[in-house]
Each structure stands twice: as C-alpha cells, then as structure tokens.
Amino acid sequence: MVAWQSRNHLSDHFAKHGVEVGARSVEEYHASARAVLARADIMFGYDDPETGLRRVGHYDSSTDLFTALNEYDEIVTHFRTDSRYVRRLRRDSE
Questions:
Q1: Which of 16, 29, 34, 60 lies most in the core, judged by the most C-beta atoms within 10 Å?
Q2: 7-21 vs 26-39: helix axis angle to the nearest 10?
C-alpha cells in the first residue's frame, strides 16, 4: 500500500488541498490520492518546480486530480489542477 512521507506531511497537505479535492477528512484525502494512483490515465516523470526533486506524476483527466510520488514511492502531494499544468510539467522535464 502506498503511504505518505509521514503522517505530518499528510496532515499538512490535507489542510492545504483537502477542500479542493472534496475530502472532509484526512482519511478521505488519502483515499482520494490512492484512487488517482489506481486510475490515472497520464503518468510521467518530472522535476518538481519548487524543490527540483524528481517525481512521478499521476493525473486523472476525468477528475482533474493529480498525485505525485517521490523516488521511494511515497505520496508527496495530491491536488486538483488542469491539463495545462500537467502539460507544462511534462514539457519542462523533457
């Protein structure tokens, strides 16, 4: 089972993005992130624009939800975005 980097990291991201993904609890937020990993129709490697660290992005274009994993297959973020953001990440990592 895929997990977050830490419980604190999950809680921080839930506080930042929970409402936008429709999650009412940390558990719902985690379940939403895992659902994207299971059904993403676009997966790609990229360099995080804020940290420069390598990530694997998973994007579900039917819901506009995005989840990223680090090199240890831990979830590092989950939020709602659009295909323009995904295209930009993919282009900038080529």
A1: 29
A2: 80
pLDDT class of 93 with cuts at 50, 70, 90:
confident
What pairs with residue 65 in β-bridges? 60, 80
Summarize pLDDT for 22-38 with one digit per residue, the tens. Answer: 999 999 999 999 999 99
Nearest to residue 61, comparing CAs of 85, 88, 38, 41? 41
- pTM recorded for the entire structure: 0.94
The pLDDT score that the predictor gives to residue 2 is 87
For the domain made up of 7-92, give the CATH fold: Nuclear Transport Factor 2; Chain: A, (3.10.450)
Contact 37, 67 (CB under 8 A): yes
